[in-house]
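Predicting holo structure, beta-D-ribofuranose bound.
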Amino acid sequence: MTLPVIISCDPGIDDAVALALTFGSPELEVLAVAATAGNVSLEQATANAAALLDLLGVPADFPVHAGAAGPLAGGERVPDEPVHGAGGLGGVKLPVSVRPIESDAVAHMAELILARPGEVTLLALGPLTDVAHLFERFPDTIAALGRLVVMGGAVFVQGNVTLSAEFNFYADPEAAALVLERGRRIRLVPLDVTRKAVVDRPTAERLAALPSPAGEFGAMLLDMCNTMVARGRPDGAVMHDPLAAAVVLDESLLSWEAVTATVELDGTLTRGAVVADARGVSGREPNIRYGRDIAAAGFLTTLTERLTGLGA
Ligand code: BDR
Ligand code: CA
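Done. Tokens:
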């Protein structure tokens, strides 16, 4: 029995590693990969996703679906701090893919989810624009989704774009607010836990020395270590998206807390921030479970083992 998963991503170095982890996990059946604007433009995210699937040996007729080019409310994409490098994958240049690129990611997601009610996990690793479009255009998918695992938000810690907001939520707060309001069975994997999932430099160096395809992922991780050091931050690559992918495999990696949570849309200092009701004062039923802490060791070991085993 494998677990069916749809991935929405904006690769992005940690998205790339999350793709490697999901495709490198025999427990999972990846039904579709949709690219969205986020770390890079939609065009770049789509090209990166296609090239990464080539690198991972995914059959050539498995398409990449192109999703949203910009936020739900319109306007320009919010550019990410360039920690992923100009092309999104650090200094790693992959051959241009000729894999098919399909449009209307959201309609494809809906078809897959509605065909297997209660079974499919949607793993969202970028801004939530496409998930919001999915819920608006195909509301039946809300109940039909087995689970929605989201990397995003800073619940009780500081943000990474502003003091209060995390990138995926800051890039499209209206989408994040809609998804939190309407979604069910949401597992939020926020900065509160992802900041504790760091690949250190020796591990990145060891992976980078391996033959392809593991070597390319190691090179990306090493690149991120270098960028962090150049910016005066701790040495190491924070594995935001891979931790969310690992949660799809095993929720017991994290301790979970149910809370009522919304996303601030208007604050000049707090746009995109998660506002969570830790004391139950709102009187509303909890609408999400968020990862509060790492509950079990083993994520980094599993990640490095699966990256090392790629192509074996
Ligand atoms: C999130 O933003 C992006 O930079 C990463 O890929 C991750 O999805 C972390 O805030
Ligand atoms: Ca991402």
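The pocket of beta-D-ribofuranose (ligand 1) is lined by residues 12, 14-15, 39, 80, 125-126, 151, 160, 166-168, 240-241 (CB under 6 Å).
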